[in-house]
Amino acid sequence: xxxxxxxxxxSAFWPITTGDRRFRVxxxxxxxxxxxxxxxxxxxxxxxxxxxxxxxxxxxxxxxxQPPYVGSQVLPEISSNHQIHDSEGIxxxxxxxxxxxxxxxxxxxxxxxxxxxxxxxxxxxxMIIDAGAYPSPLGYGGFxxxxxxxxxxxxCHGIPDSRQLQDGDIINIxxxxxxxxxxxxxxxxxxxxNVNNSVNRLVKVTEECMYxxxxxxxxxxxxxxxxxxxxxxxxxxxxxxxxxxxxxxxGTIFHSxxxxxxxxxxxxxxxxxxxxxxxxxxxxxRPTECITWEDNWTTVTxxxxxxxxxxxxxxxxxxxxxxLTNRASVEFQESMVIGLPAIENVMWIGSSCHRAKRAxxxxxxxxxxxxxxxxxx
Length: 377
Known about the structure:
The protein is α+β, with helices and mostly antiparallel strands. Helices cover 29% and strands 18% of the residues. The protein is built from seven helices and 17 strands. The strands form six sheets. Strands 1, 2, 4 and 5 form a four-stranded antiparallel β-sheet that branches. Strands 3-12-11 form a three-stranded antiparallel β-sheet, with no helix packed on it. Strand 14 and strand 15 form a beta hairpin. Helix 1 packs antiparallel against helix 2, helix 3 runs antiparallel to helix 4 and helix 5 packs antiparallel against helix 6. The longest helix has 25 residues. The radius of gyration is 23 Å and the shape is globular. 40% of the residues are buried.
């Protein structure tokens, strides 16, 4: 096909214009060639993803409050409540989301060849409990780990295990924390070592799609505008937008209405000031179906092509949206914790008091979360 296509394009005896039917045929041939080359590169670069050994669930200290679903193996139903917050609720949401953002960035710094996703889970778990928070995925519907790690063709909900990251992998790390009764949820796809250009572009465009969706948000805006903006942009690159997984309302409840569709849709409803929800599109290198493994969590692309995902929790304002998990500014402000009646004996991680207490407890993990909120114990 390559020789035929290049030969036709280089023929001096067959001039072609963009309006010519032959041009459209050649363009289609080139698209098919590009598709086959990408599939070939993917298949040669790495074998299909396989599950490694999953280690035991990590313990959480008794003094850390747990979400109500912990202890049940039943997947909670999506709450019909739209979570709209007063000023105190917004303050607590900001605190939870900023902690999640910090944990995610620190987890991403661990991504390199030979590191296992189980090691990332262990580090994330320790960072979260050191901050006096609970890792929201742990025990949610029986999920056995504290973070989701989705590698290469895994779309989402990957369970950390003994598999080592390889040069050329991509990995989405999805962090959710439960702090002072509120969940903060965010994810990002990280690049491990040297990744080929087509996968690099997929990751970049997926992040751009998330921001396209966020740009549609403000008080009174239609929810369906989010999916339209994401789809319009993704399709310019020939990418698939996964329609099986959605964003969701979040706050004191992990998953609630509104459900946020990232593909084109006719969903009714408008956004309301004070409302919080996630936008978390998943894009695939080519449109494909989903396959869920027997663990009932890990979901991969049916054609084996890579998938990328990015996620932010946002707050609807009168004129737009505040990105609560914005990683460009992840340090706590002291004003975030003033006037919260449920928080007592507040301290900052990194203080000499906290280091001394952790040393006395035999803690070996040195956290980078210098300004994360924690409750003294």
